[in-house]
Design goal:
Blueprint (H helix, E strand, L loop, with lengths): L3 H14 L9 H8 L3 H13 L3 E4 L5 E4 L8 H7 L28 H19 L2 H4 L8
Antiparallel strand pairs: 1-2
Length: 142
């Protein structure tokens, strides 16, 4: 399931993608346009910066900008950068996999096999979709 952090991150990245190339956006402007709590958005943008998905500049004329073109930024990378799982249950995650407390083992779990398929399908879609594919929201800055 997509977390609020993942959803807000996608919304912020889509907002940045809607701007003129090279235009930097202020946290407050993104937060207001996308209805995201400003403090939480700062944390999200810091994680996206650490992941190399955005760049920032401090001071007058500063703000945030995409690190690469929207067409080269995959939705799956954004969600993964924000720590969001692409699976509904922990044992189907290739990175954070752990056996569910009610299962004797992952190999014996009938649900896990199905959830692995679901996870692969979700990952396939998100890894094929770029920010450019999300489309504009009509909320563009100067």
């Amino acid at each position: 399931m997509l977390t609020n952090k993942g959803k807000y991150g996608l919304k912020a990245m889509a907002y940045l993608a809607s701007l003129r190339p090279g235009y930097l956006a202020l946290v407050g402007d993104i937060a207001a346009a996308e209805t995201i709590p400003t403090g939480y958005l700062r944390l999200i943008l810091t994680e996206l910066k650490t992941a190399g998905l955005v760049h920032s500049r401090k001071g007058p004329g500063g703000g945030f900008v995409l690190a690469k073109p929207a067409s080269d930024t995959k939705v799956g990378d954004i969600i993964r950068a924000l720590g969001g799982p692409l699976t509904a249950i922990a044992c189907a995650s290739p990175i954070y996999s752990r056996c569910c407390p009610d299962c004797p083992s992952e190999k014996e779990c009938r649900v896990r096999a199905l959830m692995l398929e679901v996870r692969e399908a979700v990952a396939s879609v998100l890894d094929q979709q770029s920010l450019a594919d999300i489309g504009p929201t009509g909320k563009k800055a100067a």
